[in-house]
Amino acid sequence: MAVGEFPFPAMPALAGVKLATVSAGIKRVGRKDVVLMELAEGSSAAGVFTRNAFCAAPVTVCKEHLAQNGIRYLLTNAGNANACTGDQGMRDAIACCVAVGEETGVGTETVLPFSTGVIGEPLPVEKIKAVIPEAIAALDENGWESAAKGIMTTDTRPKGFTGQLEYEGKTITVNGIAKGAGMIRPNMATMLAYIATDAKVAQPVLKQLCREAADLSFNRITIDGDTSTNDSCILIASGQVDLPPVTEPEGELYQQLRELIIQAFKTLAMSVVSDGEGATKLVTLKVSGGNSSDECLKVGYAVAHSPLIKTALFASDPNWGRIVAAIGYAGIEDLDVGRVIVHLGDTLIVENGGRAASYTEAQGQAVMQREEITIAIDLGRGDCSETLWTTDLSYEYVRINADYRS
Q1: What DSSP string runs through 181-223?
Q2: d(Cα 243, Cα 144) in Å, to the nearest integer?
Q3: 288 shares its domain with 317
Q4: Which of 153, 191, 151, 179 is nearest to 36 (CA)?
Q5: In a domain, 10, yes or no
């Protein structure tokens, strides 16, 4: 079950990046569940990761290796998170990096490991190591869609983005893939995302771009309020286009590339939230009129995480009282409820501290029947605004998560 149209695009080859997807049978025999990405020598990479204190072993290893630069390979397995696995989990994550290094002749520190799946189970290292030679032999510039499928867990569809820009007669490409459908909450999610460009970008600039783009996209989506142990988002610049490198966050090339990269992040984030486990509604929450961004986010998340609101969305029930209740308990000091204005779609539902005089149940019902819904909240106390995206909470969500380990 998924909401909206997010077809996987026809993705062109991106010079300097090759991908391969093979089967290690980690959770199910025959399922392609290991993805290897090869980056051209000289590529730069940056990442943002989960803030969960129980961050998975591969997340810790990724951070350590990224700090040393010179990344050449990314290795991802689905079906096992290698999280909450103690010292053995660290040894296992590093062992996978060692195996790639031994087969390719690169240093262990140039390999980034990623895992997604069940928490608390030992990583089947030998299964992964056994298929690395096969993955190396299968590396292909056109392997994006297979890789997008290989990293999926409870996703119902692969998620991808591609876009190009022209600069001084040269074409720059941005490709990206992501996975995620549950345990999605900002500060990343049970989400893996890999976005690459063939432009030359200095690592410090790439790091800033990655953080800014994530804050405008992946850190503004939530499905169930749970923050995963394994969230990782990597931005890569292979540097294969014959143009001067972007060494400062300024200039025409930087601005054009930044816009395209943010578009990639936002598209992938929207494709993640629209594929939320059991989702039947895609909800945009626009909170304006706050004294600070933090105020707007507090209100947005209070609404987005309310099980009463999410179940009402699933039932297409315009129970607007649940929305104002969530606004009220969001923790905004000295909130003047008489100044709060709430719209459901284009329909005004709350003003002057109560139900809008023009509102009718039929109007609310018409909006709630839609697959894509906007809830706009004006706090009437400042100039700040934020936008979040979330989903409803359905019977299917319960079924998926009740059966996840079976």
Answers
A1: SSSB-SS-BS-EEEEEESS-B-HHHHHHHHHHHHHTTGGGB-S
A2: 24
A3: yes
A4: 151
A5: no
Q: Minimal CA–CA distance to 390: which of 268, 221, 183, 192?
A: 221
Strand segments, DSSP code E, in 240-355 are 282-290, 341-344, 347-351, 354-355
- Domain-located, residue 122: yes
Reference 198, options 177, 166, 233, 174; nearest CA is 174
Which residues participate in catalysis according to the annotation? 190
Which among 277, 199, 196 has a CA at the least distance from the CA of 233?
Answer: 196
Domain count, the chain: 2
Residue 339 to residues 48, 287, 327, 377, 382: CA-CA distances in angstroms? Answer: 38, 13, 12, 11, 11
CB neighbours (10 Å) of residue 342?
Answer: 21
Q: How far apart are CA 346 and CA 340, in angstroms?
A: 16
pLDDT at 340 over 80: yes
Rounded distance between C-alpha atoms, residue 167 and residue 322, angstroms? 50
Burial of 137 (C-beta count, 10 Å sphere; 0-12/13-18/19+): exposed
The structure's pTM equals 0.89
Q: And the tokens for 28?
A: 């199910």
List, in sequence order, every beta strand (DSSP E) within 50-135. Answer: 73-80, 111-118
Residue 8 is assigned to a structural domain of this protein: no
pLDDT digits (tens, 9 = 90+) for 44-96: 999 998 877 778 999 999 999 999 889 999 999 999 999 999 999 999 999 99
Nearest to 197 by CA among 69, 46, 48, 77: 46
| Residues in the chain, overall count | 406
Range of the domain at 167: 17-274
Per DSSP bridges, beta strands 232-237 and 192-197 are parallel
**Domain contains 23:** yes
For residue 220, the domain's CATH number is: 3.60.70.12
| Residues 36 and 18: beta-carbon distance below 8 Å | no
> Is 308 in the same domain as 232?
no
- Domain's final residue, options 240, 255, 274: 274
Of 274, 299, 315, the last residue of a domain is 274
